[in-house]
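Good morning C.,

I know you're traveling, so I'll keep this short. The sequence:
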Amino acid sequence: MSEAASALTGTESEETSEQEPLEDKPQKPLNMSPGAVKLRSWLNKSLRIQMFDGRVLVGVFLCTDRDANVILGSCTEYLPAENNGDGTIEEPRMLGLVMVPGKHIQSVSIDQSQYCSGDLSTPLAKDVSPEDVT
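The tokens, ready to paste straight into the viewer:
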């Protein structure tokens, strides 16, 4: 078994020495079309996605693809209000990382709510002072 382990470590060192440095590879030119620039400006911002079935998803925009599928991080789902008769509103549901199929998206907007401002310098809790965080 020790021969197999030494053979594995020998091939690993050979593979790493044969790899090219990353900086020698040519860079792909960036797409500078107006749509691509707008999408790039939305990266890491909180998006609000309205779906055709009435649900609303709010999360951090991570990426998209050519089929308009959207990946959101730290996503929360809000269901449409239903008339239950007792006036209760269902709690939002935390989903985490989601892929929203483009064919189900009705509208997309940047979420400007006070809890998802996108400003990393402001604390999440209002009663925490900068001196308390060390």
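Safe travels,
E.
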